[in-house]
Amino acid sequence: MMEELIFSAKYPFSKTSKKILEESGISLSPQIISSALLRIRNSLKGTTSKISALKKEDYIQEISNYAASRMILSCMNNSYLTNKFAVSEAKRAYSYLNYEPEETISTLSEEFNFKIKKSEDKYFVHFSTYLKHSPGSLDYRLINRDLHHGYIIVNKHELLRLLQEAIRDRVQNIPLLKTHPREIKEAANSLFSELPKITTTKITFKKGDNPPCIESLLISLKKHHNLNHQSRWYLAVYLINKKMSTEDILDLFSNFPDFKEKTSKYQIEHAKKQGYMVPSCATIRGYGLCTANCNIKNPLSWKFKREKTSGKNER
Ligand code: SF4
């Protein structure tokens, strides 16, 4: 039993942990709520908390605070926070996995239905598992790997990175519940009120640099609201035409709660290659994104028109 508890405290997203919670029930004591809030706050700061349990009850509390964190995130329904939490939990699991015996690695691989075979210090990962969970970096591209009868050879670190991605996927999949216990709602509200202080923003435009439609998108971005595909595309094309570098656009877009660097980078570079021009104000109006009557034909003329008008007013 103690072994299962230790395993579950390290890997609270596992089926074993779920079973323990079902048997023990989840307490929403002030202590659990405060540890759950700390866990989420830490994930926002990019840090993770380690287990400090000594006895059975401590391990159950550890598992409970993970479950309470997920309940709070479900109540908040903020994908930025959820994604941050999932990344942090996956990194935490990786840090434990690194020191685990083969047996534990294989238990977790089975948990995620990894198709793998081991030979000496190499692992053979079935390409379907590999494709599903490989990280976005170049090293993991299939084109850079050897394929042997449907299996890719990876080392231990690479296998653990695949597991890390699988864990992130599972943790970020938080069901949205219709009702939440009072303690969870209060915790969610307290975290909401802290959001502007604990999240970072890297937007540094000067007032009047951009037309009202773009300003409005940038305000949403600052608040970490999600934008639909068309709004993102318009913002990206506008910034590209303003000669902003891919890195700076990515920096801005990282404020989106569902930011995926690999996908965004591909889309920005694709838009650059295609040489997309900023659509006319009439088209933007058609998209429902026009927020003012600037009396110009294209949003890119905004600064020029503004400078001309303020020059006239100064005379
Ligand atoms: S008139 Fe053009 S620049 Fe002004 S808000 Fe509308 S779309 Fe944007």
Number of helices: 15
Domain count:
3
What hetero molecules are bound to the protein chains? iron/sulfur cluster
Shape: flat
Unreliable residue stretches: none
User: Widest sheet: strand order?
Assistant: 1-2-4-3
- Major sheet summary line: 4 strands, antiparallel
Care to count the β-strands?
4
Order of helices and strands: HHHHHHEEHEEHHHHHHHH
State the end-to-end CA separation: 83 Å
Fraction in beta strands: under 5%
Rg from C-alpha positions? 24 Å
Mean pLDDT score, rounded? Answer: 87
Helix content: 55-70%
Which class best fits the helix and strand makeup?
Answer: mainly alpha
What do you see in this structure?
With 315 residues, the chain is mainly α. The chain folds into three domains: 2-98 and 174-195, no CATH class; 102-169, no CATH class; 212-310, no CATH class. It is built from 15 helices and four strands. It has helices at 2-10, 15-24, 30-45, 56-76, 79-97, 102-111, 127-133, 156-172, 182-198, 212-222, 229-241, 246-253, 261-274, 281-287, 302-314; strands spanning 116-119, 122-126, 147-148, 151-154. It has a four-stranded antiparallel beta sheet with strand order 1-2-4-3. Strand 3 (147-148) and strand 4 (151-154) form a beta hairpin. Helix 1 runs parallel beside helix 4 (56-76), helix 3 packs across helix 4 (56-76) and helix 4 packs across helix 9 (182-198). The mean pLDDT is 87. Bound molecules: iron/sulfur cluster.
